[in-house]
Write a sequence for this structure.
């Protein structure tokens, strides 16, 4: 019972932290720094997926796993549905676009969608 309460407390603190990080991601986006906002969202998604893997005792072989590395086993274990998996992969692509110097900048719409979806992912996929 105590471990259950500690788990609930940890989840509550982590949710609050993620909400704060999403607010942090919104600030550079408001100022037109879309790459920075996208990178922050990517980190939030990675941390959330890593926590899910840990909570479900899924071992990840890589020392520095990517969103895809974390998402695949969660889908395989049916913790993430196929539609959620596809959505996460889509937004991981936008995050990657933000992280790497491409000839085309990420758009405001792409990054705002990433911010919105990051918030949705951390609140609905557990």
């Amino acid at each position: 019972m105590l471990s259950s309460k500690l788990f609930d407390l940890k989840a509550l603190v982590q949710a609050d932290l993620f909400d704060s990080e999403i607010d942090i991601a919104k600030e550079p986006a408001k100022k037109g720094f879309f790459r920075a906002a996208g990178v922050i969202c990517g980190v939030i998604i990675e941390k959330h997926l890593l926590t899910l893997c840990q909570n479900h005792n899924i071992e990840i072989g890589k020392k520095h796993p990517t969103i895809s590395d974390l998402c695949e086993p969660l889908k395989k274990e049916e913790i993430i549905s196929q539609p959620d998996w596809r959505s996460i992969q889509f937004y991981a692509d936008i995050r990657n676009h933000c992280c790497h110097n491409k000839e085309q900048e990420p758009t405001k719409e792409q990054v705002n969608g990433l911010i919105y979806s990051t918030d949705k992912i951390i609140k609905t996929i557990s």
